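[09:14] KT: can someone run the structure on this one? pasting the chain below
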Amino acid sequence: MDNVQSACHEHIFNTYGRLPVTFVRGEGCTLWDDDGREYLDFLAGIAVCNLGHSHPELARVMFEQANTLVHVSNLFYTLPQIDLAAQLTRLSFADKVFFSNSGAEANEAAIKLARKYSNDRFGPGRFHVITMKDSFHGRTLATLSATAQDKVHKGFEPLVEGFTYVDFNSISAVEAAITDKTCAVMVEPIQGEGGINMPREGYLRELKELCRSRHLLLIFDEVQVGMGRTGTLFAHEQEGVTPDIMTLAKALANGLPIGAMLATGEVAEAFVLGTHGTTFGGTPLVTSVALRTVQLLSEPSFLERVRRVGAYFVEKLKELQARHEVVRDIRGRGLLIGMDLTVPGKDIVDKCLQRGFIINCTHETVLRFVPPLIVGEKEIDRFVKVLDEILKEEAA
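[09:31] RB: done, structure tokens below
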């Protein structure tokens, strides 16, 4: 293990605070390190492996496609890409899909599309996008500029022009920020990296009404919260509102790199030949796996199970909250759950790892639980028992 980690430090950019474990195998909700030690995964690659590790059906699809066709470029049609786009539009509000390689690229495409649509319809000068404080939209220069967290901006100034930050859950703040330069509002239906922050009742509907009345586009970033994570295929379904543009990534292909920007037909018309592109977006290999992933994740019985197991998990965590003063709040939806603490969460993450459980901490004090959506009550009980012991140690 020491040799592996030493080689990592020697040859790979030091941009991650890596934990001292080297994983070599996974199955379902379980991972094994290079010493053969077993871990129960409550992170799922940060909400990526929603169907668990080494899913046999996805492995079969990947193997068959790898032996058939991997890449030809987007100068040509391929069947898996067409089939996946048709499936996504059938299941959503959207009419068209643009495939990319990641969530940041999907969000970058959404920002470009919003600007292009506004330019085509209203003329130049209308390019500002309103985003929410504590948001997270990616690490490219544009999506980093869209992200309203000072810590990710430091050292990369000047930021890309055209972003205004307002408080999450405040319609009045959005309304006050709108100018004759505004073209869109971009929001995560639930803020993941910002601390599992929930929208108040009616917030997203009010945003949609405001955008409609002011002729602005509404963009939902569902990179982390989409693909069944909250108990519906898309998180916004539970709010009774649809956007003009939506972005997906992370769990879309259960671990293979893919992003997608979905839009209504009217908005999508702003992208014409030469306005946007990508080399690897939507390759046959990745889209074939993504298609089967979407089919499995969108099964009504599967989504009902996510809601049921998620409610069970929240119930058990609230029992811990009642016993431990250090736990300030439990919030989330489906299997996207945060435990807000009165103290930094890093030590608890480390102690969980030492006991064979993988979680992480976001926004410094919020423990984030995003297990594979196939997790069961027995695994949850095992984890909650250990977390209870760790919280007792912290109190002592």
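[09:33] KT: thanks! The two ends are 32 Å apart (CA to CA).
[09:34] RB: yep, looked fine to me
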